[in-house]
Amino acid sequence: MPFEVINLRKSYGGVEVLKGIDLKIADGEIHALLGANGAGKSTLIKCIAGAVQPDDGQIHVGRERFRSLTPREARQAGITVIYQDLSLAASLTVADNVFLGQELRVGPFVRRRAQEAETAVWLDKLGIDLDPSTVLTGIGHAELQAIEIIKSLRTRPRLLILDEPTAALSEREAARLRQHLLALKGQDLPILYVTHRMNEVFELADRFTVLRGGQVALAGEVRAHDREEIIGAIVGRQMQAATPPEAQAGVQAAPLLEARGLLAGGIGPVDLQVRPGEILGVFGLVGSGRTELLEALFTARPSYAGELRIEGRPVRLKGPAQAVAAGVALVPADRPRNSVFASLSAQENWSLPNLSVLGRFGLRRPGAERAGFDRMAEQLDLRPRRADLEAGRFSGGNQQKLVLGRWLDRAGCRVLLLDEPTQGVDVGVRRDLYDGLERFVAGGERAAIVTSSEPDELIQLAHRVIVLAHGKVAGELRGAQITESNLLELAHHSPEPALAS
């Protein structure tokens, strides 16, 4: 049965965060819900799921009409939400997880064969090649997401909400999950699909709704709109199609950072060079060695052989502190664990690696710190621009701006290493991060190396891309050669060591 939201409104402390939202999803339709962080997506989902009570409006589930819902009423109405954090037990089998809490029994005995037979039918429907008796340990993330979906489908939902199911998946895993989801089309189940990935919108969705500032900025059939139009609605400005950037003047100069025969845990031997004014992309599938390569360049991962050169001179760096002193900085992928100090203020987070530069005679200079923070906040459009606010209270995208902003103005930082810098952030924040990175290299004196699992990102950002496969360089692409098909073809290759120069 179709699902509909009519004129839904919600305010917090006098601030209206949902301003009359209309949304309709037909049976068998996958409807993409898009919007930047803070656009109102989470509040809308919470209202639908009963976690938050709307101030006005209606929620229609089939022929039932609701002014508001409690979580229990939402479940009884057939509304199911699958969040990024899965509720699966790794030590149990696929079938045991699907029936967890709803076991088929004869008296006190569980009918395991019946459970496995029904699970096999669901696995076949979604095109998943798994034995129902397989224990979850070792099963891929895409299949775990699909098992969570099967678990929900058994309850015969009337609306299935998927909240960024591929956010933590690699591109290869995400592609597998999308294939499983395509099998659900036409099964009379309305699906609301929340995502930041534009390729998923065009591959999966029939219709879409873009929220911006708590309002519907754009809605319609996917086939009637192009990528740039949808992204423009999300960020509030017109976007241009992704094309490889023009080379900076310094890109023909001698290498700023060079690795020769670098061999470390999980990679090597690897040769690469990055020149002043250049953004070098690193692409590869899960397990290809992208993160390991950056850690080895930063000397956070011990190397067993090979040589690092900075501005043509061999260097022996004995850890990250010496790498930073030599002008090399790393922005790691795991922000909460490795980059952001949630209990410290935004300014303190930004200042941490800059105290030696901003201070004098071992003393901090609050005025200089605040001026530097304000400059960074303006350049990267940090929201909110509150130096005193705890970093943990910023959105993921704005936390990433804090981390990147630490290094953009640091005088001694010559080479910036970024591991999946836009993972899990919306397209508006991505554009701000891209702009900051492009400014970093624009003077022709600094360089960056960026890993990404998204081809479109490297097409738009990188002057050159090296592709890793099994810890080695499978090949190098430049300019117009940087296409999705070329990147994926090389990523599936088993390479001999190759020179990236």
UniProtKB/TrEMBL annotation:
GO terms for molecular function: ATP binding; ATP hydrolysis activity. It holds the Pfam family ABC_tran. SUPFAM superfamilies: P-loop containing nucleoside triphosphate hydrolases. CDD domains: ABC_Carb_Monos_I, ABC_Carb_Monos_II. Keywords: ATP-binding, Cell membrane, Membrane, Nucleotide-binding, Repeat, Sugar transport, Translocase, Transport. Signal peptide: none annotated. This is Sugar ABC transporter ATP-binding protein.
